[in-house]
Structure to design on (1781 residues):
């Protein structure tokens, strides 16, 4: 009768506000990176290598003498690009696979078996395999991670679509004589939007982690591109010599994933507390 | 010619309708089993008539109504509606014919897509059947909203902004906006509180009178059926065991199951307590019905004949039909009404 | 008869969620030993929460007791420390619920759940507890009780599950059984059996019963006395015959007029217009006033008095005096 | 139960077969010539060509697949091009590390995830709950390798409490105490997944707590601990158990990174190294083994689930 | 509050107990030296494998006829002495007669002949020598005669260079294999350590050879006495440099190679690690494609590229501390006999204007120039990044193609895939071993001028003549730009302070005879 989830609401809301603020800051960084960063993120200064944070270089410099702050700011741009790309592929493919499978059960059986097979590969391995085939590159990183999360998204979309299909209003529409396209576009897709928004925020968050892992293994975005993962990968030997080089990009990855998770969580709680188990926070990793 | 023929023939004529569901096989390589949720049921409704379909959970009443609406595939039998055989006509024709057959569901919230505004929801049947233009549809929506007791402004709101009773009004508005000939209502008031239930029952009655609708009313509540329906059919385990004029069937039931049902139904009168006619409430398993008369394991009147032979429907006069070997013996003398 | 349970001015407040506000407003009721009281109301009237408050099972902190007292067998339950109160649960008061499908733990055998109940309150051996559980299942007319003891809930039918619930509730011979719509989810034929069983057990064990329902037909079957609630407040309490024969409160009358019966066939039902306000809506002195055919300006401003119709018949309304029975 | 088992295993085999084909096909699409890599910087083209021929790289793809699969079925996954030893030997050796690492991590996940999740659920809404939930969310958002680097820095390089890297087999010198080599890596690997389990445990405890049967249990006057342990926990565990499937997948996946950071001789690092060396047979064999492992664990999880939930096995 | 407090106390206690169980005592294997390598060698077969890592491991078990002393002078190892005929065409090498293989068999001239022949036929470095050799034969049980087609100066250096060099295997092993590396079960050598086992992904294990007969004389460089103090050597692959550093600090490894240059000051100051500099510098080389593409025969454009590069900047960025690099144009370092300043004026001009002018002279039209570089070696990548930016500033459109090392090796063999590629070269005692001297090495530099000078270089035994010719070759390299040296890099390793006998500088590869704990 009365939802028993309200207890965490205040704390949850504070966290969600923080998350939303962080996401906004990151988005602003991504859009206005060239204006926000005080220096060219690629400019090399051999005489200012590995300087610790100071007034000129807020986050210090790396071993090229490049300004870490500027690189971190520019990194948000790649993070956003990868996140958006991965979400687009994961959701686009996931919706196509999932909804088609739910609406055409026979075809669905086959499609979902394909998804099953892809899901039999642990995520990073699948991404790794795809990267190795496709070669390093921003697009290929996006594609590889996108395919990984497409499988989970397809599963979720399939599940939610099946549940929607069992809803009385679909029966009602069918009883009225509604055709397949009407069912799909008017009755299923709009109702998928909020769960998909939640899924999108989680995919966005975990795309950051996967991309960072690929970069770290040296199989992600080309190393000359300033991404947080590349920055970590390049400077991991300086963990004692120049700890700021690991601290800031690492924190950025964590914060971006964290804030998106928090936002997704809050939205899910708002939408339907019972969805909790349908969306695992981590999805696949 | 056409008009005459249609007037004489029943609006809905269901003959030998069977709905079967398959079950996973017991053994890995065994044949898949199936059971008949609806077993060779025949039923007809004339124009403007209201017929009640009564039974308990798992008796097949929902499967029957869903099959008539085309939501569940039919395994055998025929459904004629408005002169067309819905089981044999093409898809386009079937959609056209179905225009005159609309459905109302039990759960007033669930039958309305939460993402669509009420105006859009009500206009949906008009859109599907391509009736009128945007403007005329809009007008009809507003008219019908008023007819069901809602305000014109409600067209812009979403279903979740309404209470249960109001949502059922919306569902009814949607069902009647297209001016159908028959409404199939599957337990439309059982989820509502008694004060709202009365409002909705009154609304259905009023609309029926105004629009000359025929009604197939599926319910487990004898009081409601008694109130609303001209005729009633009682289902047990996929079969119609008794049917006839409401008063005749419910006041002097001839089938032992109907008698049990009537005796079990509580009446708001402390002087008319419920009575137990069957020895137990052992639930029937629809997937493996007993041989012979399906009711015999619970029946206080069962004889050896009942264990082996399926009773045939028998007309006991004035269209009162019962499928029981002992229907004549269980005569009016043991009438149930007080 | 002695008052076994008395609820005084119970005030339940919803703190957050969909409907913040006063949910149960200074409700009082009394149940005597061996008496069956039906608490009647529509959904949202607060009848279930009242029962949960008595049991100490409110979904806190969403709903909390903000005032009043619950006295059972001479002890104030609300002031009792938790361990003692747990002793009352089961021993003194037991409860059964509406959904027999979900009220039993799906991964625990039925027998174990009954045994758990027995052993929580009495130090008996497991074997003895099992034997008693078998007896209890027989007492509630469970078919093949020994077999059902080892079954999981999903292997039982709805009626059987409710029988198991009843067996569990009766395990420690409670003085009061609270039954929260125990038959609403069941088919009428099953309901008839469960109601009959409850009635018999209640009389045989001389157990008091608080039976919560919205179905006046069921009330007529099960109750000695009836309390009608509307929107968190008591509307009318009376012996069962008086409620049906001489309802005093307009709401009670309206409810009775709503029910389609053989006598009213074909004619329009006299529906109560409008709908029940939610606890968050502004509060009028009489909550039923907006829907009441007899309401006047007094009803909006002056709290309705408690009118004594007869010794055991009370109504809370300005307009009980005149009016017709349905 | 038997029927359930058979049906579940019936799903397992086709998936495995389809995966094996995918693995084989994937690997062949990778650019890079294993022969050239193997012979090194100063190799002549003729030597490379000769080696290619010797390694069977010139035959048709399907032919290579069938040969590979038939051999794989008999346990022969080929010979490592780089090490010139049977792939199976490499995998078996690597499995000790990887399986122990995963087990160790699972232990962390369970002993950290379940109690903390339960605690957070018990103190729902409190500052403690907010803190723990926030922390869990943060840990789930931190890259494992980052955690690993800091763990090495703190516990190995600075404090010197634990070994920084590597893992000598427990069958070698040091025996069972060699497990200390896995403490830090397993902690790094467990952190984000434990965070997931914390969140999941908390959520499903709260979900179950709202179930009617928990209310029934409380109505029975049971001690709260009995309610939690016998009624809430067992049912909440169902959700958690079903999550173990993808937790294991996550462990395997992230082990690739963790084993690289900690220089563990496991199959995860072997995949990465073999990709860099273009050691086809090893890549194929290892990924096949990982997929097999993963599918098997999922099978076990499902069976465990069926065992925990009587509703499943009778269906 | 749903659950009572005693429950959370219980949880707390459980957590504490768990944390307590973490403590565990370290156990150290006293007689094992643990060496953290950057990875795993492809094979330890010295004849055909030129990997430095392979040599680091293998020179403990395989020995050649000669080796280098601390002054990079070749000294006898398995040989006891040699005689060179006056015309320089016949060389007789005398072998020590007390040498035993690990399988217990004595080493004879037959084994030496078989080993030299396999090396000469299939080893890339062996081919350099054998191109001038007519015949190798045993001239006694412990003496071998090499007959040359023409005098060949660098013969002893080539025989002493064990990396890709003439390790002596038993005749049964050497005679039975071609270019394919010999399998591990046939690793039979003469060195102070015996092959133990190779546990892929875990370690390569060498065991002390108890019947080892050390060469005479005091230890100097690799020459002289060899004493094996450790019972076993473990070469453990630890690809992550940070992990190697922390591993030595934490005591998990006794020795770790290839340290990040920026950490040298920190490690120098760290009592938990001793810094060991590598003796010979390595140097980066950017090869230019002489076979295809826009740079194939456009020497002016090559010079434009060369002029644009400021190698000092690149070195500073990629290496950092100045003591670890020299912006040195000479292919061999200062102090080495082969040092020469010829042509080095063009080494690091860093003159964008001049480069742009040269590019214009070369009719450069902005065609993209593909620069192949891998990330496996940080300094390749780092320097390539700097060069790319310098070239872009000079208007030369360079595009980096970043791949992993395996792909680079594959791609560089295909002339149409690249225009420039980055690699590095280890220290060599004789310039003939520098890869650019090999006509078949990718880049395929084989101009007539080169061929003439190369012939002159190898035909004489006279050291001064050879040095002069080498200076000419170096000048020609700066003129024709087949490759661009990027400067000397001194790598370093770290050792546990517990080790004694480790010198501050390695000769080329670290060695662990004469070292103890």
């Amino acid at each position: 009768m009365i939802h028993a989830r309200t207890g965490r609401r205040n704390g949850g809301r504070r966290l969600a506000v923080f998350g939303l603020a962080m996401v906004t800051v990151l988005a602003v960084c991504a859009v206005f990176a060239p204006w926000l960063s005080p220096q060219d993120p690629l400019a090399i200064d051999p005489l200012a290598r590995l300087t610790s944070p100071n007034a000129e270089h807020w986050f210090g410099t790396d071993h090229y003498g490049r300004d870490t702050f500027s690189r971190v700011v520019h990194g948000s741009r790649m993070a956003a690009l990868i996140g958006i790309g991965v979400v687009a592929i994961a959701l686009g493919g996931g919706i196509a696979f999932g909804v088609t499978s739910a609406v055409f059960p026979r075809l669905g059986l086959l499609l979902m078996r394909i998804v099953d097979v892809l899901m039999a590969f642990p995520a990073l391995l699948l991404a790794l395999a795809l990267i190795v085939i496709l070669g390093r590159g921003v697009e290929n990183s996006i594609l590889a991670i996108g395919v990984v999360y497409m499988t989970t998204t397809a599963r979720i979309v399939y599940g939610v679509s099946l549940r929607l299909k069992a809803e009385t209003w679909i029966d009602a529409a069918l009883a009225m004589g509604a055709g397949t396209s009407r069912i799909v576009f008017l009755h299923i897709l709009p109702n998928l939007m909020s769960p998909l928004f939640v899924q999108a925020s989680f995919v966005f968050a975990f795309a950051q982690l996967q991309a960072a892992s690929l970069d770290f293994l040296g199989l992600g975005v080309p190393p000359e591109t300033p991404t947080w993962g590349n920055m970590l990968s390049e400077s991991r030997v300086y963990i004692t010599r120049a700890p700021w080089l690991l601290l800031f990009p690492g924190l950025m990855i964590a914060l971006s994933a964290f804030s998106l998770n928090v936002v997704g969580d809050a939205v899910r709680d708002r939408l339907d507390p019972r969805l909790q188990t349908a969306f695992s926070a981590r999805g696949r990793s | 010619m056409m008009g005459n023929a249609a007037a004489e023939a029943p609006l809905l004529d269901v003959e030998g309708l069977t709905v079967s569901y398959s079950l996973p096989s017991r053994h890995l390589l065994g044949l898949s089993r199936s059971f008949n949720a609806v077993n060779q049921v025949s039923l007809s409704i004339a124009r403007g008539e209201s017929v009640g379909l009564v039974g308990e959970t798992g008796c097949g009443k929902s499967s029957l109504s869903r099959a008539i609406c085309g939501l569940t595939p039919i395994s055998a039998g025929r459904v004629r509606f408005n002169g067309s055989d819905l089981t044999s006509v093409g898809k386009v024709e079937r959609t056209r014919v179905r225009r005159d057959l609309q459905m109302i569901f039990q759960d007033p919230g669930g039958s309305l897509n939460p993402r669509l505004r009420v105006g859009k929801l009500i206009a949906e049947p008009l859109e599907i059947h391509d009736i009128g233009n945007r403007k005329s549809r809009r007008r009809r929506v507003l008219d019908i909203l008023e007819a069901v007791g809602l305000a014109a402004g409600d067209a812009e709101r979403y279903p979740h902004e309404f209470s249960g009773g109001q949502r059922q009004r919306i569902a009814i508005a949607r069902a009647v906006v297209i001016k159908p000939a028959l409404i199939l209502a599957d337990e439309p008031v059982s989820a509502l509180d008694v004060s709202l239930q009365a409002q909705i029952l009154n609304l259905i009655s009023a609309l029926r009178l105004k629009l000359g609708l025929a009604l197939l009313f599926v319910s487990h509540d004898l009081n409601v059926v008694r109130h609303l329906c001209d005729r009633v059919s009682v289902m047990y385990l996929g079969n119609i065991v008794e049917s006839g004029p409401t008063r005749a069937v419910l006041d002097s039931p001839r089938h032992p199951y109907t008698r049990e049902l009537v005796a079990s139904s509580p009446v708001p009168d402390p002087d008319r307590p419920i009575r137990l006619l069957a020895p137990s409430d052992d639930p029937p398993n629809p997937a493996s019905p007993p041989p012979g008369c399906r009711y015999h394991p619970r029946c206080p009147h069962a004889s050896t004949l009942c264990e082996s032979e399926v009773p045939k429907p028998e007309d006991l006069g004035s269209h009162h039909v019962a499928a029981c070997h002992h229907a004549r013996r269980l005569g009016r003398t043991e009438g149930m009404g007080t | 008869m002695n008052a076994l349970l008395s609820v005084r001015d119970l005030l339940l407040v919803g703190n957050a969620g969909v409907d913040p506000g006063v949910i149960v407003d200074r409700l009082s009721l009394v149940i005597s030993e061996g008496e069956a009281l039906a608490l009647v109301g529509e959904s949202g009237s607060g009848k279930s929460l009242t029962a949960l408050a008595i049991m100490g099972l409110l979904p806190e902190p969403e709903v909390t007791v903000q005032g009043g007292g619950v006295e059972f067998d001479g002890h104030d339950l609300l002031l009792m420390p938790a361990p003692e109160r747990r002793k009352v649960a089961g021993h003194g008061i037991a409860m059964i619920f509406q959904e027999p499908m979900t009220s039993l733990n799906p991964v625990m055998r039925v027998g174990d759940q009954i045994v758990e109940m027995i052993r929580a309150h009495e130090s008996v051996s497991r074997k003895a507890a099992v034997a008693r559980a078998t007896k209890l299942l027989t007492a509630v007319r469970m078919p093949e009780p020994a077999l059902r003891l080892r079954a999981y809930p999903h292997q039982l039918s709805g009626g059987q599950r409710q029988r198991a619930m009843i067996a569990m509730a009766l395990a420690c011979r409670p003085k009061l059984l609270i039954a929260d719509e125990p038959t609403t989810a069941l088919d009428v034929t099953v309901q008839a059996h469960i109601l009959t069983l409850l009635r018999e057990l209640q009389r045989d064990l001389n157990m008091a019963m608080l039976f919560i329902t919205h179905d006046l037909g069921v009330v007529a079957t099960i109750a000695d006395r009836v309390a009608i609630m509307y929107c968190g407040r008591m509307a009318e309490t009376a012996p069962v015959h008086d409620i049906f024969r001489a309802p005093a409160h307009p709401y009670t009358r309206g409810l009775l007029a709503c029910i389609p019966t053989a006598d009213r066939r074909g004619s329009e039902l006299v529906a109560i217009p409008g709908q029940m306000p939610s606890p968050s809506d502004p509060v009028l002195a009489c909550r039923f006033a907006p829907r009441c055919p007899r309401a006047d300006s007094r009803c909006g401003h002056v709290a309705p008095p408690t009118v004594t119709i007869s010794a055991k018949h009370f109504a809370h309304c300005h307009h009980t005096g005149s009016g017709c029975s349905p | 139960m038997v029927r359930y088992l058979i049906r579940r295993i019936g799903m397992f085999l086709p998936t495995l077969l389809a995966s094996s084909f995918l693995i084989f096909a994937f690997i062949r699409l990778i650019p890079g010539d294993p022969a050239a890599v193997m012979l090194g910087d100063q190799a002549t083209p003729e030597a490379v060509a000769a080696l290619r021929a010797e390694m069977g790289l010139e035959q048709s793809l399907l032919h290579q697949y069938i040969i590979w699969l038939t051999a794989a079925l008999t346990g022969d996954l080929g010979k490592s091009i780089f090490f010139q030893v049977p792939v199976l030997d490499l995998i078996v050796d690597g499995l000790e590390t990887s399986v122990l690492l995963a087990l160790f991590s699972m232990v962390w996940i369970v002993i950290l995830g379940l109690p903390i999740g339960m605690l957070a659920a018990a103190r729902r809404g409190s500052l403690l709950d907010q803190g723990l939930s926030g922390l869990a969310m943060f840990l789930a958002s931190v890259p494992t390798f980052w955690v690993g680097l800091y763990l090495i820095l703190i516990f190995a390089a600075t404090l010197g409490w634990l070994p920084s890297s590597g893992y000598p087999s427990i069958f070698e010198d040091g025996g069972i105490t060699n497990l200390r080599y896995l403490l830090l890596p397993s902690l790094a690997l467990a952190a984000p997944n434990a965070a997931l389990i914390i969140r999941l445990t908390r959520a499903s405890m709260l979900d179950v707590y709202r179930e009617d049967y928990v209310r029934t249990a409380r109505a029975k006057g049971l001690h709260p601990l009995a309610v939690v342990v016998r009624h809430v926990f067992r049912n909440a565990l169902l959700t958690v158990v079903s999550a173990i499937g993808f937790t294991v997948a996550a462990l395997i996946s992230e082990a690739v990174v963790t084993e690289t950071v900690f220089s563990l001789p496991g199959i995860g690092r072997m995949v990465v190294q073999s990709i860099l060396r273009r050691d086809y047979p090893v890549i194929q064999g290892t990924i096949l083994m990982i997929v097999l492992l993963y599918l098997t664990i999922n099978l076990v999880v499902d069976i465990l689930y069926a065992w925990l939930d009587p509703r499943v096995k009778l269906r | 509050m749903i659950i009572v407090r005693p429950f959370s106390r219980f949880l707390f206690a459980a957590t504490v107990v768990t944390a307590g169980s973490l403590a565990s005592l370290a156990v150290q294997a006293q007689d094992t030296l643990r060496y953290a390598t950057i990875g795993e060698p492809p094979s330890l077969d010295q004849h055909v494998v030129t990997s430095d890592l392979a040599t680091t491991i293998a020179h403990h078990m395989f020995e050649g006829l000669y080796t280098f002393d601390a002054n990079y002078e070749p000294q006898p190892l398995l040989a006891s002495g040699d005689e060179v005929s006056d015309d320089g065409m016949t060389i007789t090498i005398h072998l020590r007669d007390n040498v035993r293989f690990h399988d217990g068999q004595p080493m004879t001239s037959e084994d030496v002949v078989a080993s030299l022949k396999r090396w000469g036929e299939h080893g890339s470095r062996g081919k350099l020598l054998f191109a001038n050799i007519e015949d190798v034969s045993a001239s006694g049980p412990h003496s071998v005669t090499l007959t040359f087609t023409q005098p060949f100066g660098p013969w002893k250096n080539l025989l002493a260079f064990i990396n890709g060099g003439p390790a002596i295997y038993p005749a049964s092993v050497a005679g039975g294999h071609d270019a394919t590396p010999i399998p591990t079960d046939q690793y039979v050598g003469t060195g102070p350590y015996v092959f133990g086992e190779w546990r892929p992904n875990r370690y390569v294990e060498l065991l002390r050879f108890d019947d080892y007969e050390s060469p005479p004389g005091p230890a100097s460089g690799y020459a002289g006495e060899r004493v094996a103090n450790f019972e076993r050597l473990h070469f453990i692959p630890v690809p992550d440099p940070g992990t190697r550093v922390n591993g030595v600090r934490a005591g998990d490894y006794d020795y770790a190679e290839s340290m990040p240059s920026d950490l040298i000051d920190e490690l120098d100051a760290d009592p938990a690690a001793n810094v060991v500099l590598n003796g010979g510098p390595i140097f980066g080389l950017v090869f230019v494609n002489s076979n295809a593409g826009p740079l194939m025969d456009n020497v002016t454009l090559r010079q434009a590229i060369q002029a644009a590069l400021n190698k000092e900047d690149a070195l500073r960025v990629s290496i950092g501390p100045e003591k670890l690099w020299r912006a040195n144009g000479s292919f061999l370092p200062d102090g080495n006999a082969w040092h020469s300043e010829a042509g080095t004026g063009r080494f690091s001009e860093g003159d964008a204007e001049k480069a742009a002018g040269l590019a214009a002279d070369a009719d450069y039209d902005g065609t993209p120039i593909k620069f192949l570089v891998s990330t496996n070696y940080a300094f390749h990548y780092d320097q390539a990044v700097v060069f790319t930016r310098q070239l872009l500033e000079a208007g030369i459109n360079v595009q980096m193609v970043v791949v992993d090392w395996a792909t680079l090796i594959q791609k560089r063999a295909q002339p149409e895939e690249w225009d420039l590629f980055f690699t590095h070269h280890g220290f060599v005692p004789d310039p003939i071993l520098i890869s650019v001297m090999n006509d078949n090495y990718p880049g395929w530099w084989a101009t007539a001028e080169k061929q003439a000078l190369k012939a002159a270089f190898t035909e004489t035994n006279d050291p001064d003549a050879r040095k002069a010719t080498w200076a000419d070759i170096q000048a020609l390299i700066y003129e024709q730009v087949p490759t661009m040296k990027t400067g000397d890099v001194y790598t370093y390793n770290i050792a546990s302070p517990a080790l004694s006998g480790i010198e501050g500088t390695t000769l080329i590869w670290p060695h662990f005879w004469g070292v103890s704990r």
